[in-house]
Structure formats: structure tokens, C-alpha cells
Amino acid sequence: MEGFSWGNYINSNSFIAAPVTCFKHAPMGTCWGDISENVRVEVPNTDCSLPTKVFWIAGIVKLAGYNALLRYEGFENDSGLDFWCNICGSDIHPVGWCAASGKPLVPPRTIQHKYTNWKAFLVKRLTGAKTLPPDFSQKVSESMQYPFKPCMRVEVVDKRHLCRTRVAVVESVIGGRLRLVYEDSEDRTDDFWCHMHSPLIHHIGWSRSIGHRFKRSDITKKQDGHFDTPPHLFAKVKEVDQSGEWFKEGMKLEAIDPLNLSTICVATIRKVLADGFLMIGIDGSEAADGSDWFCYHATSPSIFPVGFCEINMIELTPPRGYTKLPFKWFDYLRETGSIAAPVKLFNKDVPNHGFRVGMKLEAVDLMEPRLICVATVTRIIHRLLRIHFDGWEEEYDQWVDCESPDLYPVGWCQLTGYQLQPPASQSSRESQSGSSKQKKKAKSQQYKGHKKKRKMPVGKKPVSLSSLPLTGGVRRSFSGDEELTPPPYRTLPAQTALEAFPPPSTSQEFSPSLKTVTTLQLKEELIDGEDYNFLQGASDQESNGSANFYIKQEP
């Protein structure tokens, strides 16, 4: 991660990042409001040599996820001192915070000669401007509190045998992501990473309740301090009516291969479980004992009706060994004596997700789920996103749902203290591809399909998340609690001390009086006694829609 900067990466390539509102599961995802360009904030003034920490007002020039490119007020079109920071950082405040906190506002050294009356300048410049809500930092803190805690027990998919679940214990929580250690792991290294809203984890007793296979632990009783996670903390699935026309064993469909997420394959329903859950197998690649069947809910966005790929011009992976190419569903159904699952049983809801082709984000490599990488949306089909990992070949791309909890805004890793994997260089790709191929040959597994798995760059060891350095962001503990250490800022050449503006003596001078949540009022005697407002928008834009599976919707 050393040397990678989202700000430099976006600036040098004119990239656009997916907005925070696309990620409802992420901090502030549902209460981001209309934070946008030109919103004003109070930030530390780094263009100053005073011995104490002072602040100045800056405006957002560009937004990239949580990250904002800021420009100090008074620089007009001069971008010489523009800087990137995480808008959720501990040193970013709404206009008026300095006055309420007794902090001085000091103009940057570079422009301090431009005006003699900075008060009048600010009042004039900020009239009608927007700023952050006064409770913004509180909302950030609240949105980073997570109900899952260490020592909680869950049922999670067995990463070696997808057809069954195992009991695991929450080892740590980072930004809502859980490091789970399988309960029967003697050295506590057999782990699995997923988000707390992942469809792969369930409450204790879930497998028995729906008829799912389950590996019993050799441990006969709970270890001291371990306790079952309350069922209400898990992601809810939609209720379905299985009494009428429903999925049946042997029906054909198309499904994302969980062991090769870049492909959508010909698949078969192998078993119908309770509560709308289905066991799915990939045609031509199944183990004889069904150990590589996997569980999807009937409303899962990862299963599709027969013909979905053809209609949406996606390459469908035919069964292994099937020679009658190009693959035709009509012929295959006749040859196998099968029927297609009824189209009306599939989930056709398409939310107004806000993603666009080319947007940047941070995405989990689901074949190595402890890794979160720099990524790009390269294709959109209804609610289905094609995620490309920057610097890697397309064979490592992954199909992911638009509401997947494994997608995050730019700056999420910095905000939560998680390690971000930068775009791969050519040398690291070649070396990792070689080691990956060797490992694949040496590893015996029942599933014989191609499993795309990315490795850590050669010569680099995983960094301890508890000791990760951060620049320009907020470090947070595993539980999501914010540490009070402010982020470092650039140091600039020393200057002769200039007179700082003292804190205002009243709440009406220079600073807003917080009369309401939505309006900040500023009064300045020098400007005819008029009222000046900083408009704040905290409304959340959220809408849902629906779309037919057979209407092409690729922007």
C-alpha cells in the first residue's frame, strides 16, 4: 500500500468514484445527504507557522467517495495548495465549529496579504453557501458502531466444502467486516472474512432449521466467553411462498459460479430447502458427493432464468465437456430431459443504485476475501455489476450485485483502518500468476473448475491491521470506535507569525448560531445588518425501481 494515493490516482487519470450513497451498508451510506462540490468546511491551516493548531475555511473542489479535494477560501482559481482528505476525518468540521470551540481562524500565509478585512470577505463569500450538518461527526461515529462483537458464535459456509456450514467465532470486527475463526481450529488460523450482512453467515441453528448440511464441531460445549449471536442481527431475506408454483429439483437455470466469480454458468437445482433456500450445482463440474453444491436463496441476485446471458449479451459458460457448441439452451434442455425454472420465480427488482460504468471503488476479492482492492465498475446489467481489479487481467473480474456488502466507497479502507491493495504492477502480476498456477497444480480439490485466486505481492507480507499507518484519515479500532489522534497534514515552509483572528466574542460574529439543524445564520455588522445563511442539506436520496430481466440496461 505504500506509495499509493487515491487522490493522485484519481487526479492523474481524471477518474470518477462511485458516490457514498451507492453503498447503503457503509458508514454514512444512508445519511450522506447532498454533500457535494462547493460545500464549505473548517479544516487545519497547514500554510501557517504559528506554534498552535489553527484553522481556515475550505471548499470542496471534487468528491471521490469519502475523499474530498479541498481548496482554502481565498485561493480562487489557484490550485497550488489543494489537498485531499477524508471528509469523515476528525479534523473536518462544519462552518462555525471554530467559534463554538474557541479555535482561531487564520488565513493561509500565501494569501494573507490579499485582504485587510477578512471578516467581511468571509461573510460575503459564504452567504448562501452549504456546510456540513452540525451533528455530522456524531453521525459518522454512530454509523461506525457495529452490533457484532468478538466471541460471538455464528454458522458460516465451510470454505473447503461449500455444501455445508460450520460454527465459527468472531475474532475481530473492522468496519463491519468480520474475521471469523472456525470453532474447531486448534491454532486459530483457519479463518474466513466476510461482512456482517453477508448472506454466507447465519445464526446458530439455521442449518438445522432449513435442512442445510452442517459439519458438527468436535467441541462438545461452548468455550468460556463465547456466546451465540442474536438472530435479529443477521441480514434478513425476503419471505417467499413455496406452496404454489415453486422451484423443483432438476430445474435448470444460470448462476454465478461461487468458485469462479467471473463466470455465469449452466446450473441445476439439486435440492430445495426450507424458507426459500436452494442448493445449486454447476453442470459438468460437480463432485459425485455433491460437496461443491452451494446455497442461494430464491431471491438471490446471483441466479438467473434460462436465457438471461444471451439476452444481455453475457458469455454463458457451458457445462465442462459439453461439445455441442455454440451452446443452445433449447437443445440442452431436450438432450437432458430437463425443464427451465419459471422466469416469474426469480428476483426482478432493480434498485436505483447510482453506479455508472467507469466508477472507481474499493472491492473485496471474493476469492481471497481478506483482501480489499482498488477496483472499477466495467459493466452494468440491471443490478449486476462487473467489477474489475485495477492492474489485473479480466479473468480475475467478478460479477457482484449492486447491493453487495463487499463493495465500498473510495476511502473506506482509510476511514476504518483496513489495508487497501493498490493496483497490481506487471511484475507482481507475473510472479503471482506463476505462484498461483503452481499452487493450483499442487492442491487437490474436488471441484475441477478454474478457481481464480489472487495472491499477496511477492516479497510482501500481510500487514497487521492493528498497526496500520494512515495518512489523512481517521484510525479506528477493530470495534469501529474512533481514536482521537488527528491525521497528519502536510508541513509547509515556516513563516513569520501573523496576527491570528481571535475567537469571536459572541456566537453571531464569524460563526453560526445553531438555531436549527438545517440553517446556520451569520450576522456581520459591517454588511448592513443583513442575515447570511449557510444552507445545509442532510436529505438522503433513495429510490427503488423495477426492471424486466429481458430489457437490456447497460449504460
TrEMBL record:
One of its GO terms (biological process) is negative regulation of DNA-templated transcription. Residues 423-490, 536-555 are annotated as: Disordered. Keywords: Chromatin regulator, Metal-binding, Nucleus, Repeat, Transcription, Transcription regulation, Zinc, Zinc-finger. InterPro entries: Mbt, PcG_chromatin_remod_factors. One of its GO terms (cellular component) is nucleus. It is found in: Nucleus. The keyword Manganese does not apply. MBT repeats lie at residues 4-108, 116-212, 214-319, 327-423. Residues 536-547 have a biased composition (Polar residues). Pfam families: MBT (PF02820). Residues 425-436 have a biased composition (Low complexity). The keyword Nucleotide-binding does not apply. GO terms for molecular function: chromatin binding; histone binding; zinc ion binding. Residues 437-458 have a biased composition (Basic residues). This is MBT domain-containing protein 1 isoform X9.
